[in-house]
Amino acid sequence: MSLGPEDWWREAVVYQVYPRSFQDTNGDGIGDLEGVIQRLDYLNDGTERSLGIDAIWLSPTFPSPMADFGYDVSDYCGVHADFGTMETMDRLIGECHRRGIRLLLDWVPNHTSEEHPWFIESRSSRHNPRRDWYIWRDAKPDGSLPNNWKSVFGGPAWTLDETTGQYYLHSFLKEQPDLNWRNPEVEAAMLETLRFWFGRGIDGFRIDVMGMIVKHPELADNPLNGDWMPGDRERSTQLWQNNRNYPEVYDAVKRIRAVFDEYPGRMGVGEVFGTAEEVGRYYGDDDGNGLHLAFNFQFIHEAEHGLTAWDAGALRRIVNAAEASLPAEAQPCFALGNHDRPRFISRHNADARGPERARAAVILLLGLRNTPFIYYGEEIGMEDVDIPEDRLQDPARIRTIGRDPERTPMQWDASPGRGFSPAEPWLPFGDTSPNVADQDRDPGSLLSLYRRAIWLRRNTAALLRGAYRELPAPADVFAWARVLPGEPSVAVAVNTGPTPREVDLPGGGTVILATDQALEGPLKSGKLTLPPLAAAMVQAPKY
Ligand code: TEU
Ligand code: CA
Q: Are 266 and 260 in contact (CB under 8 A)?
């Protein structure tokens, strides 16, 4: 495959900014777009002193009543006053591009806010021309709900609207009514919002809840889940078969892709849930007519049953399944964290060794064939912050585990305002450590490891473009090679176990990056020895 400039996303590292929590510049305790501009040099100033990322994904920045912190959009073509103005957004686009950074916004096509003018019209009467822009149904003759679908946040997906006596569908909060993508006017209007931003220079979108926009035409009940176990989430009592990854959603994806293709070099990454096969289908057919990328969340949760353990067997199984399920030339996108999930260290810290695993995770994420995404603060090892009851913000906390702990302000330094804001922040700060200022000065810090890994990847062809090949390794070790004809190969090995392990690398090589810098340098034999929980990248002419 020969890469052109429009394929930048294949080699990119993307950094997710949760804008409320990155940098406040006007003293209201809420991060803003001006703050993102001020911190761009931290992200990439063109030198190895900076993180070196290629693109930013901004969680929603649109006007919104903030029932779900921006995932309830009331105007897809504006900027929320908390974050700035359209002028600030244009300046951010310009400042990013001046540094060679691409900017992705977060498109929320499955639902709007209940305050979006379309929904205000739609709910006003059964005969309003926009009635059919949302999904309205009568109660069943016996008075029960239109079907058995549940909200992702728990409880029924239907709310009765008193004015017109019908129920509307909301797959999330009742403040987030689902759009009716089977109405061609809805699709056309939503696709126009993409063109609006492409026209302003936005380089692409993360696409929220991609897999749910097209539902079963008759909204048939979901079948019950025979595998449900006590302790699993309430919503998993049913199989989300008629409202998630429904076959026709893949056709809508192709029509969305066609709009991206109207503007060269734009990229779409879908938030999708399901098996490796279901995720793979979002890339389209072999001719790449689906999404450019689709998140694989299995490093965070393999199935509906709980979180994935830090375990070589699980990692290997997930990677091999993804590699086997993608169309030719498609590239995986393994998510290690985002604004919906506990932070990496907090997920893997039962024995207090989460910080060590976080170092190995850098080598995993940057070493795999994939487009890495880094959630802000992961690069310094931020952990979930305990939020006192009276400071909780996330509406999803009412029925599911709240997401506030992983959304706390970025810790820039150890000062009382953490370099984030002089004001009381919208969510409380964590302890003074970790913070960027301390780690910036420490060559052994997690931040330094991230920087080195990202710049190494930028400068190593096999890490950017090499094929993936699993390597034989002892139990507890996941090892693979990145191989590109005509270029030195890179072997990567991750020991997830509590004992030292040896990986055979006949022909030797040089450790070019490791969780512990003491491991770096030429191998003395054809073996790599990995201490417990360590990981390394080894370069040699061939693996
Ligand atoms: O998330 C979709 C989703 O299904 C989950 O990640 C969900 O938030 C989680 O399971 C709650 O326990 C996306 C966004 O990432 C999320 O922030 C939004 O709340 C949601 O869509 C609605 O737009
Ligand atoms: Ca602010």
A: yes
208 is catalytic: yes
Whole-angstrom Cα distance, residue 383 to residue 381?
6
Enumerate the H helices of 309-445 as residue ranges.
312-325, 344-347, 354-367, 436-440
Q: Which residues lie at CB < 5 A from ion ligand 2?
A: 24, 26, 28, 30, 32
Ligand nearest to the CA of 176: 1
CA distance 377 to 371: 18
Whether 71 and 136 have beta carbons less than 8 Å apart is answered as: no
CA distances to 188, 392, 532 from 108, in Å:
15, 24, 42
Helix H or strand E segment including 169: strand 166-169
- Smallest CA separation from ligand 1 atom 1, residue: 209
Kindly give the distance from the C-alpha atom of residue 35 to the centroid of ligand 2, in angstroms, as a whole number.
Answer: 8
Contacts of 387 (CB under 8 A, 6+ apart): 393, 402, 404, 405, 408, 427, 428
What 3-state class would DSSP assign to 205? strand
* Closest to 30 in 3D by CA, of 62, 73, 69, 68: 69
Output the tens digit of pLDDT for each of the chain's 543 residues.
Answer: 788 999 999 999 999 999 999 999 999 999 999 999 999 999 999 999 999 999 999 999 999 999 999 999 999 999 999 999 999 999 999 999 999 999 999 999 999 999 999 999 999 999 999 999 999 999 999 999 999 999 999 899 999 999 999 999 999 999 999 999 999 999 999 999 999 999 999 999 999 999 999 999 999 999 999 988 888 888 889 999 999 999 999 999 999 999 999 999 999 999 999 999 999 999 999 888 999 999 999 999 876 567 899 999 999 999 999 999 999 899 999 999 999 999 999 999 999 999 999 999 999 999 999 999 999 999 999 999 999 999 999 987 765 669 999 999 999 999 999 999 999 999 999 999 999 999 999 999 999 999 999 999 999 999 999 999 999 999 999 999 999 999 999 999 999 999 999 999 998 999 999 999 999 999 999 999 999 999 999 999 999
- Active-site entry in 185, 262, 351, 470: 262
CA angle 157, 70, 425 (to 5 degrees): 125
User: Domains in the chain, ordered, with CATH?
Assistant: 461-540 (2.60.40.1180)
- β strands within 68-146, DSSP E: 102-107, 136-137
Q: At what angle do helices 354-367 and 446-458 cross, to 10 degrees?
A: 10
Q: Where are the beta strands (DSSP E) in 143-230?
A: 158-161, 166-169, 204-207
Q: Helix, strand, or coil here: 121?
A: helix
The DSSP 8-state label assigned to residue 404 in this structure reads: G
Report yes or no: 296 and 332 within 8 Å, Cβ to Cβ: yes
Residue among 410, 335, 408, 409 at smallest CA distance from 380 = 410
Instruction: State the Cα–Cα distance between residues 538 and 513, nearest whole angstrom.
Output: 7
Distance CA 182, CA 252 (A): 9
Whole-model pTM over 0.85? yes
Clarify whether 438 is annotated catalytic.
no
